[in-house]
Specification:
Blueprint: E1 5-10, E2 15-22, E3 26-34, H1 36-40, H2 47-69, E4 78-84, H3 88-105, E5 109-113, H4 114-120, E6 133-138, E7 143-150, E8 153-159, H5 165-175, H6 182-194, H7 219-231, H8 236-265, E9 269-273, H9 280-292, E10 296-298, H10 310-325
Parallel strand pairs: 1-4, 4-5, 6-9, 9-10
Antiparallel strand pairs: 1-2, 2-3, 6-7, 7-8
Helix pairs in contact: 2-3, 4-10, 5-6, 5-7, 5-8, 6-8, 7-8, 8-9
Bound molecules: 5'-O-[(R)-(carboxyoxy)(hydroxy)phosphoryl]adenosine and zinc ion (ZN).
Zinc ion binds next to helix 4.
Length: about 350
């Protein structure tokens, strides 16, 4: 098939991500602007501020990656943007800019499901997994195990019944006074604790470990940490011990259930995606446990774990390729409805 050049735009939350993906040459260039510093003084993302900042950033970022790739706007074959889920106002910035560019250039515009972007992001790395595989999607908004049999062929195996893993990291980090976004900070504190000559050690429950299904529950862990905080004086050592105990509990359950998903489906490839996929302990534990059963784990590059434009450009390119393969190019607006 002839090469397709796709511009990807991600504006679902507080990162403005853009990328150029070419189906023959791969990822040509990408750029990301994180607003997290702007939101940190409010302790979370302020939707109105997020939308306004996306408007300020997105066009300069697109200009930047076009010039970095030596590509002209007129060379684009399609535009892919994050359709949802996410903050409504923030999403509309990406949708509007994409619609306007697509109209001006007379090229197709595709809305991509944010989770499909995350799900396919490990395919941007080499070696890339081949279908079928099990995917563990762990972001700030979602925690799901999926069986992935091909593009668009996703079966939900299990998911969280309350908080997402990233959300639990963020809320627990807030309790521990680590600010926003707390996941990476909590993880850093836990990792430092392991390497310190600590005197404290806490054990937290492993929620739903033996529930017999592939579902998760993380909201109780935050409460368990709060209970610990009421019982113990908050020294740097106890704070580190709590961060470590929390991370250990989350990672343990995520790893055990991922392995159970492999066993249930009979598959031997596990793909990890979403922001929590950047967690070092999760990566180490999954690799170790997978090796024991002869399975392989695939991770996105660190920079493509959290929200980014590359995963949206890539998902858009795959969707475009699928439709052009089937000679259904005019159908691009409806393929996501499947
Ligand atoms: O995928 P993502 O960028 O955005 C969503 O779609 O939600 O994920 C962000 C989430 C946040 O909750 C953040 O705290 C968490 O991923 N996260 C981490 C780490 N890096 C990011 N959680 C634990 N350890 C990390 N190293
Ligand atoms: Zn995300």
């Amino acid at each position: 098939s002839h090469p397709l050049l796709v511009l990807g735009i991600e504006t679902s939350c507080d990162e403005t991500g853009v990328a150029l993906y070419d189906t023959h040459r791969g990822l040509l260039s990408h750029a990301l602007y994180s607003q997290s510093e702007m939101h940190s003084e409010y302790g979370g993302v302020v939707p109105e501020l997020a939308s306004r900042d996306h408007i300020r950033r997105v066009l300069p970022l697109i200009r930047q990656i076009l010039s970095a790739a030596g590509v002209d706007l007129a060379d684009l074959d399609a535009i892919a943007y994050t359709q949802g889920p996410g903050l409504a106002g923030a999403l509309l910035v990406g949708a509007s800019i994409s619609a306007a560019l697509g109209f001006a250039l007379n090229i197709p515009v595709l809305g991509i499901h944010h989770l499909e972007g995350h799900l396919l992001s490990p395919l941007l790395s080499k070696p890339a997994p081949a279908f079928p595989f099990v995917a563990l999607l762990v972001s700030g908004g979602h925690t799901q195990l999926m069986e992935v049999n091909g593009l668009g062929l996703y079966t939900l195996l299990g998911e969280t019944v309350d908080d997402a893993a990233g959300e639990a990291f963020d809320k627990t980090a807030k309790l521990l006074g680590l600010g926003y976004p707390g996941g990476p900070a909590l993880s850093k504190l836990a990792d430092e604790f392991v390497h310190s000559g600590h005197s404290k050690y806490f054990e937290l429950p492993r929620p739903m470990l033996h529930s017999g299904d592939l579902n998760f529950s993380f909201s109780g862990l935050k409460t368990a940490v709060l209970t610990l905080m009421h019982k113990h004086e908050m020294t740097p050592d106890t704070r580190g011990a709590m961060a470590f105990a929390f991370q250990e509990a989350v990672v343990d359950v995520l790893a055990e259930k991922s392995l159970a998903a492999l066993a249930k489906t009979g598959l031997t490839q596990l793909v990890v995606a979403g922001g929590v996929g950047a967690n070092r302990q999760l990566r180490n534990t999954l690799c170790r446990k997978a090796e024991q059963i002869g399975a392989t784990v695939f991770f996105p590059e660190f920079e493509f774990c959290t929200d980014n434009g590359a995963m949206i450009a890539f998902a858009g390119a795959m969707r475009m390729q699928e439709t052009s393969d089937q000679d259904k190019r005019t159908d691009v607006f409806t393929i996501n409805a499947r």
